[in-house]
Design brief:
single chain, 157 residues, mainly beta, 4-stranded antiparallel β-sheet, globular
Length: 157
C-alpha cells in the first residue's frame, strides 16, 4: 500500500458557497487525501482551521454519512444540541438523513485539524440549518437554491 505524503498535498482554500457566504470560510483550508490517492467511493480530507475559523455553514446530508476525528488542537462541534468541545482523538459521526445541522469551529488561539471521512454519491441534497438554503449535487455540479428550490443569491437574508 503506497504511503501518502501529507506534506506534499497542497491545501485547498476557500469554499464553494455562493456569494458572500464563501467569505465566512476564511481561515479554513483542506487537504484532499482521497483525491490524491485516487479513492472514489468515499472522501477523506484533513480540514485545517485557523483560530476563529469554521469548517462550513451548519448543514446535514440526506444520503451521505460523515465521520470525523480531531488530529490537532481543540475543535468545537456546533449542532442542534449546542456546543461540544472535541479534543485530540475525539470523534463525531453524522449519519445520512439525520437532520442535525452541524459544523466545526476553532474557538482556540492555535491551529486545529480534523480528519473528515464521508460517503461519495453521484447525487446528494444537503440542507443548511441557519439559513434558507439547500444544495443539490448531481455528478459534481453544485446547485445552491432556497429550500423551496427558488434561486438563491448567496447573501444571508
Amino acid at each position: 500500500m503506497p504511503k501518502i505524503d501529507l506534506d506534499k498535498i497542497e491545501p485547498r482554500l476557500g469554499s464553494g458557497y455562493p456569494g458572500k457566504l464563501g467569505d465566512e470560510m476564511g481561515g479554513r483550508s483542506s487537504k484532499r487525501i482521497s483525491d490524491v490517492a485516487g479513492i472514489t467511493q468515499f472522501g477523506a480530507n484533513i480540514t485545517i482551521l485557523q483560530p476563529g475559523a469554521k469548517s462550513s455553514l451548519r448543514h446535514w446530508h440526506e444520503n451521505q454519512d460523515e465521520f470525523m476525528v480531531v488530529l490537532q488542537g481543540v475543535c468545537t462541534l456546533v449542532d442542534d444540541h449546542g456546543e461540544t468541545e472535541l479534543q485530540l482523538g475525539d470523534c463525531a459521526a453524522f449519519p445520512a438523513g439525520d437532520a442535525n445541522g452541524h459544523c466545526v469551529v476553532n474557538t482556540s488561539d492555535t491551529e486545529a485539524r480534523f480528519l473528515i471521512i464521508g460517503t461519495r454519491t453521484a447525487t446528494e441534497v444537503a440542507w443548511y440549518s441557519d439559513i434558507d438554503m439547500k444544495v443539490t449535487v448531481n455528478d459534481g455540479v453544485y446547485d445552491f437554491t432556497r429550500k423551496d428550490g427558488s434561486p438563491f443569491s448567496g447573501d444571508k437574508e
